[in-house]
Amino acid sequence: MRNFKIGMLLVIHLLIYTPSRPALAGEKAWTVDAIMNLKMVGDPQITADGSKVAFVVTSVNSKRNGYDSQIWVVTAAGGALDPLRSPHFTGSAPRWSSDGKTLAFLSRREGTSQVYGADRLDRVPRKLTDSPTPVRYFKWSQDQQFIGYLAFDPPSSEELKRREAGDDAVVANQQYKYSRIYRIAAQGGKVHLVTRSDRHVISFDWAPDGSKMVYAGQVTPRNRDTFNLDLYEIDLKTGREIALVAQAGRDADPCYSKDGRLVAFHSQAGTLNYFEERQVGIVPSGGGSIRYLTEKMPGDVFRGGDLFWWSQDNSEIVFGAGVGTIDALFSINLKDGTPNRILAPLHGPSSFSLSRDGSRLAFIKSSSNWPPEVYLGKRGGKGVQETQLSDLNPQLKEFPLITTSTIHWKSRDGLDVEGVLRLPIGYKPGDRVPLLLELHGGPTGVALEGFSIPRTYPTQLFAQQGFAVLSPNFRGSSNYGGQFRLANIKSQGVGDFDDVMTGIDALVQQGLADPDRLGVMGWSYGGFLTLARQAPIGFPGTAPATDLVKSCGPISAASPGIAGRLTITTRRVIP
C-alpha cells in the first residue's frame, strides 16, 4: 500500500499547480461556468398512446443562486420543444391524464408546492390543489376524474397561536407531522382525507377501477423508521384498511396490475437491514402470499415512485435496475420468472415511462461525454429502436472529450472489484499522470460510466488539468448483488479501504498513475473513507469535522447489531 496525501486542499493545490493541456484548434476549454451552465434533464413521461413526451429541464439560475426546473413537451415524432413557461414559473413531476389531454405537474409558482394542470400548452396552467402544506407527490386515478396527493399535516390552531406568541420551541421526536393521502376531483371541489390512521405515507397507487388505494407507510416520520415500511390497502368507500404486506424491512412503491388483481412493489424480503439488496415482489390485492421475482438477478432494483409498468395482459413487469457500472431497463415474465434486459444504459431512477401497450417508451440516457438526453424507444422483435428527442446542450460539440472505461482488479483478500476510470484529455498510453480518487457515499452508492454530473465534482476540469480520476465501487456498493453489499460488515474502513488502495496499486503497476501525485475526495460515506486511515498514515494538511453519531444513527436503528459491526476511531487534526 502507498501513502498519499488526502483532502480537497490537496486537490485544489494540484489543480492550481498542474499544467493543463492546451485546447486544440476548434476546441473550447472547460471552465466552471461551462460546467454549471449545462442543462440537465429528468423524469420523462410518455402519454398512454405514445404520441407526446413531457420531461423536466433543470438549469442554474445564477441570479438567485439556485436551480430552475421547467416542464418541456415534445411530440414522439420529433419537432419543436415547448416549454410551459410564465414569469417566475418552475415545475417538476409531470404526469399525463390517461387520455393524454391534460398534463398535471408540481409547481411553487404561488409559494408552496401544489398540483397544476394544463389542458393546452399555450394557456396558463390552472391550480388543481390548494393544500395548506406543500404537495409532495400526486397521482391521477385511472378514469382521470380524481387526483390523489401526499401532504404533511398542517399546524394545529394551538401551534399557530404559540408561533404568533414567539414560542417556536420544538420538542424532538414528539411533534410529528405525518404525510397523508388526500383526494380531490380533477375539476376541483372538496378535499377528502384518505388515510386517517397515524402512518407516514411515502408512496401510493390507485386501483384501476378507482375503488381502492394501496400505499407504503411507516409508523412515524422519523428517519429511523424509513427502513421499515409496510404496505396497506384501503377501501375508498368504507375507509377500511388491511395490512397487505407486514414484515421486517422496507416494502414500498406499490403498483397495481392492469386488472387490479396483483400489486408489484420493492422489497427487502423480510430483512431489516440497511445493506440488504432490493427485490421485485408481487402480492395479491386483498392479501396473500408474496412472490419474489428477482432473487437470482444480479444488481440492484431501482426504488422510488412510478418505477413499475405492467403489460396489458398482466404477464410482464418492466422495471429499472443497476448492474455493475451501468443502469438498465429490464422486463420479467411472471410465468417463468426470467429477467430480460430491454435496453442500456439508462440515466438512473425516474428515467423511463411506457405507453399503455408498451410498444413505445420514453427514456433518458447519457454517455461519458454527453449529458442526459431524452429518447424515444420503439419495442419490437429485434430490440428497441432509439430516436433522440432532445438536444439541450449543443455547445458541447466544441469541447474536448473524456475517455471513460470500467476497470477491474483484485483486492488484498482476493475480492473482485471494479470502478470507473476517466483519463485526462489527450492522454497518451504510457504516460504517468496524477490520479484522483472519487469516493461515493452510502456505502451503498455506486459509480457509473455515464456523464459526470457537475453537482458533485468537476471531473471535466480535472481531466483538462491532466488528472486521471478513479471512482471505485468498493465492497458495500450497490449493483453487485447482496453478498457484495454485505461484504464490508465488520470491515468498514478496513476491507473497503483495501479495495480502494489496491485499485491505486493496479494503476501504478500498469504505468498509468504517478505514485507521487495522488489525491482523494469523497462525500458522506466517501468522506469517512477519505479519513479512514488518517491516523496511521499521517495527513498533515487535513482538518476534518465529523458528526458520525448523527450520520450513523438511522442506519444503526434500522439494522440491529450494526453498532457491533462498525468500529470507528477518529481524531481532529489542526494543521
Q: Nutshell version of this structure?
A:
This protein is mainly beta and 575 residues long.
Distance between the termini: 25 Å
Name the helicity range.
10-25%
Give the amount of beta strand, in percent. 35-45%
Number of domains: 2
CATH hierarchy, class of the largest domain:
Mainly Beta
Task: Provide structural commentary.
It is a single chain. The two termini are 25 Å apart. This protein folds into two domains: 8-33 and 396-564, Rossmann fold (3-Layer(aba) Sandwich), CATH 3.40.50; 129-158 and 174-354, Neuraminidase. Helix content is 12%, strand content 36%. It contains nine helices and 34 strands. The strands form eight sheets. Strands 21, 22, 23, 24 and 25 form a five-stranded antiparallel beta sheet that branches. A five-stranded mixed beta sheet has the order 30-31-33-32-34, sandwiched between helices. Strands 1-2-3-4 form a four-stranded antiparallel beta sheet, with no helix packed on it. The chain is globular and about 70 Å long. Mean pLDDT is 83; it is low at 1-23, 535-543 and 545-575. By secondary structure, the protein is mainly beta.
Provide key terms for this protein.
single chain; 575 residues; mainly beta; Rossmann fold; Neuraminidase; 2 domains; 5-stranded mixed β-sheet; globular; disordered N terminus; disordered C terminus
Task: Please describe the topology of this protein.
Blueprint: H1 8-17, H2 32-36, E1 40-46, E2 52-61, E3 66-75, E4 82-83, E5 92-96, E6 103-107, E7 114-118, E8 126-127, E9 135-140, E10 146-152, H3 157-164, E11 179-185, E12 192-193, E13 200-206, E14 212-218, E15 230-235, E16 241-245, E17 251-256, E18 262-267, E19 279-284, E20 291-292, E21 300-301, E22 308-310, E23 316-323, E24 326-333, E25 339-346, E26 352-354, E27 360-367, E28 370-380, E29 383-388, E30 404-410, E31 416-422, E32 433-439, H4 459-464, E33 468-473, H5 482-485, H6 495-509, E34 513-522, H7 525-531, H8 534-537, H9 548-558
